[in-house]
Amino acid sequence: MIRVVTRFLILCATIHIFLCAQDPSGVAVTGTVLDPHQAGVSGSKVILKRTDGTEVQSTIADSIGVFRFQGVPPGNYDVQIEQQGFKLSISRMRVGDQAPRPLTLVLALAEVQQQVTVNAELTQVSTNTSENLDTVTMDRSALDDLPIFDQDYIATMSRFLDASSLGTNGVMLLVDGVEAGRAGVSASAIQQVKLNQDPYSAEYSRPGRSRIEIITKPGTSEYHGTFNFVFRDYHLNARDPFALVRPSNQRRIYEGSLTGPLNKKTSFLISANREEQRAHVTVFALGPSGPIYDTPRAPDMNTELSGSINRQIGENQLISIRGVYTDHTLRNQGVGGLTLAEAGANFEDREDIVYFNHTGSITKNLLNQFRLLVAREHITTESVNPDPKIVVLGAFTGGGAQADKLQTENHIIFNEMVVWSIPRHTLRAGINVSDISRRGLDDNTNIAGTYTFATLQDYPNHPLSLLRQSGNGHIVFVEGVLGGFFQDEFRVLPNLQISAGVRYDWQNYFHDYNNLSPRLSLAYAPGKSKKTVIRAGGGFFYDRSGPGVISDLIRYNGSRLLQYLITNPTFLDAFAAGPTSIARLEPGVRIPYTLQYGASVERQLAKSTTLTVSYTGIRGVHVFRSRDVNAPLAPSYGARPDPNYNVVRQIESAGDLESQSLEVGLRGNVTRYFTGMVQYTLGRAYNNVGGTPVGVNRNAGINSFPANNYDLRGEWSRADFDQRNRFSLLGTLTPGKYFKLGVAVSLYSGQPYTETTGRDDNHDGLANDRPCIDMQGPACLRYLPRNSLQGPGYADLDLRWSRDFFLAAAKKDKGPAITLGFDAFNVLNHVNYMSYIGDHSSPFFGKPIAAQPTRRLQFSFRFRF
């Protein structure tokens, strides 16, 4: 690895020295776009024009407001800046034989009620390496006009993620440049949400398709506010196909934000969010007495308060501080599908967060940014029922949840970055401390045990296994994750830019220090029209284990928390014991990394319409997985090799992943009446690690075990998240002045699932064995591969109708306004089945036990001023 990185850096240095010798005609014009409080304004459209109005060049300001024009001939020019929420800015300048000093351009806020339309200029191609157009971006107007369920912008953007690029811990969420677990502000306080911006940037540990970036609203010099009310009721919804009656559900969201000045140089932003869901979930299971249909309660309450202060110091320094309070409670967590109400748990999450952000210029061309997050979190989970947990595979889960635990977390996260702009170069360097956390855990799970039965006929007399714990479940540990990077964005020619960087990542508990990840990307516009841009890039991206693995290594060391896995136990033996199970790292374990590479072509079809065609390849190396290295040996599958232990869970970095995808996207004013994006992806993903890192199943790969711990040939197969075809449409239809319709369409191929016998023939305590397809005498030479069965596709159409009513008729489009909205999700009421059972011994084999939500209607009311 060191040899590869060394060669890469030597190559970059050689290219850099050679290209620096080139001298394109003209000089460089650089500058920074700031808001009224001297904070950089990202995404601004900057256009360089001659005084007669002829456009010379255009670009997009980067994440801190910096822009650059290369090869500008001497003459008089106008610099025009367009940015949603700000007034149009035009500044005149003169360019001589020498490069002018960097410009500092301050935007003025636009009238808040001015109608916002999609600006055609904002969808033009650019040769900046960070301005790829295969992004997914929702600005404030899109967030207001699109059908977004419960105002959950993160869930809406998640449909565009690439599961192959996600790490062990799932989606990376960035809020104003800082990694976070939640947005930290209410929905109306969010200005923009982005995905896949600058996919090969060395600033981030993960590629673009695995991170979601949220930009919150800045403080303003005038008082503006928004109040939203969202309402749903089960009387307006279609019936769940697995429920005999329509479950009683009602959802209410009260949300709003207020911003304004405290004095000439200080502004504030306050936001609040209250969510109340009086919900019932659907249970569809099979018990000893027959089918079980139930709709138990699962109320969900969430309160979030946030407040920030922005203070300008001097002419070019800005400090902001934001505090966040969150309290989330959920009753009967985990209930639904095969899980009965008696096996639920009550969950409460209390979190306090403080953000600190400082941005300022050290010199005219040197900018510094410092971001800090301090947080503490208290999470409790209590089982509704203290009885042992009963799992009958493919039939029902009852008894108690056996999920009691207490988690405490204290976090410090900070970033320090400097940006140095010089002619033809923008140099970035920084340190990312992604997490320094003190974590505590009181693990009281499985004290009474979990009994697993292979079939309904075996219940209750013949359990397959018992998993129970005893001993000391209290642990405290410190997790540290940090990185550093350097990147040079080099304008070689007016139509060619190269970005080269290198990043280093490290985490404690893993003695792997060779985690250098080089990144390289380029953007080139052939010809003089500059309507076509060719991009290419590649880079290494290192993963993280997450705190769960560290917690397991400390708890299950063989003496602290004793875990017993007993096969063929006596039912309800509260004192069953035996050799304990342990968890350990494989000797020489390494941090996994992903090699991602790709190329794309962007074409300007019209003034406000672009077409992109992108290819992406991903190769995952040393992927985390678990294996029981003390499992009974074939062919007898008798006693375990080391009788002193039961399961010896070895956490390895031996998995592999291969993924390829071809994406075609159309963005902008696609037709006269439709503005938005249309995207189709053809792809495939193979791996030999079970699980998917998306949503609640994140870390599934590192916690999954193979069917045969000594024969992994059948594990290489389609990934759990593999979908060959994905089509998405997101945008607004405006056929008339008083008719505006938000549209979201999702059409996906089905995902695979695994066929199993439902038995534990190899006596490793797990009933995940797969059928044998090549027997020779008593021995099986080959088992059915993982994910051999195919699930159905997914189809969904969501619509939103909204209408604005302005309260000041003389100041239409500028005064206070009320917006009424009506959303319909899954309008066609297409049943999207899920959770297919692949267990041969289950009466539901080959059938689904749940479905995605049917048609739901949502009403919203908004007042803004």
Topology diagram in text:
Blueprint: H1 2-20, E1 27-34, E2 45-50, E3 55-60, E4 66-72, E5 75-82, E6 89-95, E7 103-106, E8 136-139, H2 140-145, H3 153-158, E9 172-175, E10 178-179, E11 190-195, E12 211-216, E13 224-233, E14 250-263, E15 266-278, E16 283-287, E17 290-294, E18 300-313, E19 317-333, E20 345-363, E21 366-383, E22 389-392, E23 396-399, E24 405-422, E25 425-443, E26 450-453, E27 465-471, E28 474-493, E29 496-507, E30 516-524, E31 532-542, H4 547-555, E32 561-567, E33 582-585, E34 593-606, E35 609-628, E36 648-669, E37 674-687, H5 700-703, E38 717-718, E39 725-736, E40 739-748, E41 752-753, E42 772-776, E43 779-783, E44 789-790, E45 794-806, E46 817-825, E47 833-836, E48 848-851, E49 856-864
Parallel strand pairs: 1-7, 9-12, 22-26, 33-36
Antiparallel strand pairs: 1-4, 2-3, 2-5, 5-6, 8-11, 9-10, 11-12, 13-14, 13-49, 14-15, 15-18, 16-17, 18-19, 19-20, 20-21, 21-24, 22-23, 24-25, 25-28, 26-27, 27-32, 28-29, 29-30, 30-31, 31-34, 34-35, 35-36, 36-37, 37-38, 37-39, 39-40, 40-45, 41-44, 42-43, 45-46, 46-49, 47-48
Observed structural traits:
disordered N terminus, mainly beta, Maltoporin, Chain A, 865 residues, 5 helices, 52% strand, 49 strands, globular, 22-stranded antiparallel beta barrel, five-stranded mixed sheet
